Every structure is written in C-alpha cells, then in structure tokens.
Amino acid sequence: MQRDNTDKYYIKLKSDVKKRRELNNNHNKDDGFGLTDSQSDLLVFIRMFYKEYNLYPTIREMMIGEINGKPIIKKRKWSFPVSKMLLALELRGKIKRLSGQSRAMKLIDLD
After folding, report:
1. Fold of 2-107
2. To the nearest 10°, the Cα dihedral for 68, 72, 75, 78?
3. What 8-state DSSP symbol labels residue 58?
4. Per-chain mean pLDDT for the chain
5. Cα distance between residue 11 and residue 56, in whole Å
6. CA 37, CA 50: separation in Å to the nearest integer?
7. Between vectors from CA 39 to CA 28 and to CA 52, what angle results, nearest 5°?
8. How far is the C-alpha of 15 from the C-alpha of 83, rounded, in Å?
C-alpha cells in the first residue's frame, strides 16, 4: 500500500516537470531570455529537491536526476552540461550561487 502511494507521488512529480516547463517557457517569453527545456527541467528539479530535503542538490545529484531513487529528469553522464545550465540559470536571474562551495545556491523566484 505504501509503495503504491509513493509511485503515484513520483508519477505526479514527473508530470509536474512537464507542466512547470510549459509555465516557465510561457512566462519567460516576454523578457527575451526564455529557458531551454533542459534548463527548465533542471530548475524544476532543484525546486523539487529543495522541497523534499530542505537543502539544494549537488552537481552530482543533478547529474543523476533522481529524488528518493525515482528518476525525475534526464540522467547525465558528465558534469559539464549541468554546470553550463546552472551558469545559464544564474545569468537569467533564476538562481544565485557561491563559488567553491557545495550546495551553495539560492532560488531567486521560489514559488
């Protein structure tokens, strides 16, 4: 019974990624700095991770793309694409990062 509830929860999280991606893309069309699908997915993953664990994910955790063992976003083999997406999110004002520290990140527009 418990397992069925957690499976439903993570299926809902995955559908939320798609919905939030659409909302992010529609919201950001006005400012000319829209996010790519991958950037939007990563931003949603960061929000979900923070809500689940009350701390921000490391780059390695973002590469894996799982929350409690359930895949939420696409798994990545290398850390460079994740770092590049984080830089793009920072340049667009979605997150703020401190260099040289693990989990040193803050969501700017947390809703």
Report:
1. Arc Repressor Mutant, subunit A (1.10.10)
2. -80
3. P
4. 80
5. 22
6. 20
7. 105
8. 25
